[in-house]
Amino acid sequence: MARAYAMMGYDPSFEDGTKFFDRISESVAGRLDAFKARDIADMIWSFERVGRRDADFFEGVARHIIASMDDDGVRCEYKSRDIANILLAYAKAGHGRRRCGMYNDASSTLFDVFADHVVGLPTLEAYNSQDLSNIVWAHARAGSRRTDLFEKVATRVIESISDNSSNMDTFMSHHLSMLVWAYANSGGTNRRLFRAIAARVTSGELSEYKSQELACILLAYAKAGESYPRLFEKVANHVMSSDDLPRFRPQELTNILLAFAKAGESNTNLFEMMTNHIISLDSFMGFNSQALSNLLWACAKSRETNPILFATVADHILALDDMGEFEPQALSNLLWAFAKCGESNSIFFDKVADHIAALDGLDEYKPQDLSNMIWAFAKDGSSSNRCVFDKVAAHIISLDDLREFTPQTLSNIAWACARAKFRHPILFEKLAVEAASRFAEFNTQEIANMLWSYASMGIVDVSLFSSLGRAYSYCFYDCNCQELANIAWAFSVADIDAPHLFRDESSFINACVQKQDDFSVEDLSQLHQWSLWQKELMSNIALPSSLVQKCYDAFILTRSRPSALQNDVIFELSAMGLDPEEEVLTEIGYRLDAQVKVRGTRLGIEVDGPFHFLGNRNLTGSTMLKRRQVKALAGMPLVCIPYWEWNEQGNSSNKKRQYLRSLLGLENSC
């Protein structure tokens, strides 16, 4: 009777208000010995089916089953279907999950007891396709890592679906989807099994597969890292050629696109068809926060952007009362997708910023979530990003250590702060200490981004530069052009001599020569500043003369339009009779805003507007480098006019001229 009610998903009530399954649990307590194995299996399956998942009841049944079997699991009254249904019930009910790899209760031990029994059998001939798929699915769901069980089942499955006998037909579509899901989520994989199932799926008709099964299969292959382009191509062609798309549920739509993105399988036509279908839906109410996040992440990862889709999703989220349903990973991936695709939406980013600012804390956010989030705000350039950066910085500083932060997250956080011009010395100090202690873990891109970020912010951390520079000296040939240029520029700004890194005839010089035809104008400009730095150091290290000239030519191409502030200063200098020369190209390639002659001496004039500074009037790395190199190599003194000092003079020409006389040493002149 219990199974019949369970099949209907029904737990009837008696006249006294008690529930049917409550009475069953009370009546069987202490009497499990009177029940046959099949009855126990049906009972526990029925309890889970109607949502009755009381831990004490499941524990009691697990202890009874374990006690009924001998130590090695050989003596077992439970048949294949019983074992499969029992494990399925425990896994779905959330019982039997291991914690920290340990058995915490009888429910956890039950999985190993049955695994021992199955592995110990001489053959699995008595186990049909449903039993096998349910058993490994349950083990995967419960976090079991019984590789011996998974290997034995895989061998049996491969034999069955590779055989030309009738056994092939026993594995139905839902069995195959459960199998690949289980192996993809078991912490390991079995290439032979994935190959056999891929061959089975691609050789047959896909009309027998439900949309959920197709999505599950593709996602499993993507997660397991098993590349089978033919499988993805066949599913894509099936989806695009059928009329079933309107019957796909939101989760299935997003999972198929997510699988293509994770597997690196490109299919523009599929993405266009599915995203246009999603846009055409009456609403996004069927998409939960995770589905929306996965959808846009898949588009961004596959570089298959659809501006209308992004705008529609943004409008849907903006219409929500709050964003409480968005888990940290879903929210950070959503932001990452918008920024990655260049889909700027200031109102959307403002709403997310307000949500983050209102949170009590960021303890639920993993390092990758934090990294993706501020990277997105930095790329978007939203004016609301300051409160987000403040919150993330405060959270990171409060942590006891940063061991959970990967080199990629550390470098991305530093890069995002630099891109957003968010100067936070305490945060940068903490990041630097962690990075310096783990320099051997960083790859070339992470090193280049990390050091570029510190140099851009004008923060010189000797330990960080020394440690990462030492790691970088062994991998120049693995670097791309931008990384080579960034690392050279960063050391130039920091002015930290690194002969081990840039020694004469070094791998750095050779790498630059090999890549000289691939450098961008910006890369060449940075290398020119590195060459100037070598002159500052009076070292004998130099790029070949032809490359030096190429770098110089690229550097002098950079020109900026005079600002209103600069024009105002020039006007007052002219009014003083100093006849300023504008946009002066120095012999070392730098352009100065102006040049005047005072008592026979040429003086360079630099008007430093807000973009030359960070935070509390700290110079940017670029401005620091220019000032230092012009003073050292251009053969003239340099007079710098910060914007706030000029603004303090107000609209009075007399005050402005007096200020200029003071800077130029003309206080006693009329």
From TrEMBL:
InterPro entries: FAST_kinase, RAP, RESC6_dom. Transmembrane segments: none annotated. This is RAP domain-containing protein. It holds the Pfam family RAP. It comes from the Eukaryota. Residues 603-662 form the RAP domain.
